[in-house]
Structures are given as C-alpha cells and as structure tokens.
Amino acid sequence: MEGLGNSMFKKFVREIAALAWTLGGTGLVLITLSGQTRQWGIYISIASLVLHMVGVLSTKSEDS
Question: What is the pLDDT of residues 3-62, one digit of tens each?
Fold first, then answer.
C-alpha cells in the first residue's frame, strides 16, 4: 500500500510541474483583476485545478 501512496504523490508532483506555465499565467491574470471579477477568477481557477487533479489521479498511469 505504501507504493500506491508514493506513486500518487509522484503523479501529483509531475502534473503540477507540467502545469507550471499555466498556473503562472493564471496567477498573472488574477493579480491584474479586482473586485468581484477577481473573486470569480479565483473560484474558477481553484475548481479547474481540483477537477484536473482528480482526473489525473483517478486515471491509471502507464508506469504504475
């Protein structure tokens, strides 16, 4: 069971690294927004990241 947790963590880290430019761009756009638009942008960004990571972690990897 320890290998499964380690594998999921590695998958998570690999995916965050792959999304680095996307996350950086999202952050750059969010700092230029204000008020309610910024709030919605933050909510949508977090929801998108969570849904993406759930999808990544729920699919079987070729190297597992």
Answer: 667 887 888 888 889 999 999 999 999 999 999 999 999 999 999 999 998 988 888 766
Are residues 60 and 6 in contact, defined by beta-carbon separation less than 8 angstroms? no
The more confidently predicted of residues 16 and 63 is: 16
Q: Is residue 63 in a domain?
A: no
Picking from 57, 49, 62, 61, the residue whose alpha carbon sits closest to that of residue 12 is: 57
- Residue 34 is part of which domain span? 2-58
> Can you tell me which residue has the tokens 């594998």?
7
Structure tokens at 11: 């998958």
In a domain, 7, yes or no: yes
Domains identified in the chain, total number: 1
Residue 64, domain member (yes or no) = no
